[in-house]
Amino acid sequence: MSFISALKRRWQDADSLVCVGLDPEPAKFPAKFSSDPDAVFAFCRDIADATAPYVCAFKPQIAHFAALAVEDALQRLIAHLHAAHPGIPVILDSKRGDIGSTAQHYATEAFDRYRADAVTANPYLGRDSLQPFLDRADRGVVILCRTSNPGAGDLQDLLVQDDDGVARPLYQHVAQKVAREWNGHGNCALVVGATWPAQLREVRAIVGSDVPFLVPGVGAQGGDVAAVVTNAKTADGTGLIISSSRAVLYASTGADYAEAAAQAARTLRDEINRHR
Ligand SMILES: O=c1ccn([C@@H]2O[C@H](COP(=O)(O)O)[C@@H](O)[C@H]2O)c(=O)[nH]1
């Protein structure tokens, strides 16, 4: 099943738009992991198993594994997610982007090595840099549009003339490219941060209802859940993958870490659903 089909099914089956981000930081792990040589895998597995009933997707962030030189733990974690939670799509957050010949290797890394259902990608190098990802029709390509960080506007807000001579911010061009040219296989999604409610509304107006949004920035970054849902949901009350990492992962650093993570994911799901 394609990424988009699996996502749509999961939105319905779990009645959830929540994505749990898997961003391991061993310094924040509960004490029981201090002498575990496989702590990164074990902690992420426990969090995923506890939160699975409440999510539409998982999003491991590759830098958190690579910095610790535990890419093998990421590989085993994604294998575990597929085996233990079939039907929950896995989005590898690696924000790749390079010339086409190298991008081909990044696509192989994400989809064949890690077996991710979707990958985040940076559009800055243009269409050919995304093509190896776009060509994998069964997998998702989640393209950075308006990111959640405070400096997002430094480049993404720069005004650029479109083909009709109208000046638009760069992030709107990305949205237009996806809607009009890059989504031929129907496998694109966009990253739009929860910290930018006005831009969420603008981008939804540009792309319509066929392009899901991955929305990081609720929880630790302070994004307003109600504004996200109100401004960016589609007519059927879906269209969103609202991602939270630290606020779920480290809801408790005590022995109850898994239960606390499950509670945080459930609470977020319920808050989102009140506004759908
Ligand atoms: O615009 C973006 C794109 C990606 N991210 C990633 O999402 C999580 C956010 O973590 P929180 O702990 O929920 O703040 C993290 O992996 C980022 O790399 C983003 O925040 N904004």
TrEMBL record:
Q: Which PANTHER family match?
A: OROTIDINE 5'-PHOSPHATE DECARBOXYLASE
Is Secreted set as a keyword in this record?
no
Q: Which gene encodes it?
A: pyrF
Q: Does the keyword rRNA-binding apply?
A: no
Q: What is the lineage of its organism?
A: Bacteria, Pseudomonadati, Pseudomonadota, Gammaproteobacteria, Lysobacterales
What name goes with this protein?
Orotidine 5'-phosphate decarboxylase
The protein's Enzyme Commission number: 4.1.1.23
Q: Which reaction does it catalyse?
A: orotidine 5'-phosphate + H(+) = UMP + CO2
Q: Which keywords belong to this entry?
A: Decarboxylase, Lyase, Pyrimidine biosynthesis
Q: What family does this chain come from, according to its entry?
A: Belongs to the OMP decarboxylase family. Type 2 subfamily.
Q: Which organism is it from?
A: Lysobacter cavernae
Q: Which pathway does the protein contribute to?
A: Pyrimidine metabolism; UMP biosynthesis via de novo pathway; UMP from orotate: step 2/2
Residues of the Orotidine 5'-phosphate decarboxylase domain = 17-261
InterPro entries named in the record: Aldolase_TIM (IPR013785), OMPdecase_AS (IPR018089), OMPdecase_type-2 (IPR011995), OMPdeCOase_dom (IPR001754), RibuloseP-bd_barrel (IPR011060)
Instruction: Give me the segments passing through the membrane.
Output: none
The positions flagged as active site in the entry are 95
Q: Which domain of life is it from?
A: Bacteria
Q: Name one GO molecular function term.
A: orotidine-5'-phosphate decarboxylase activity
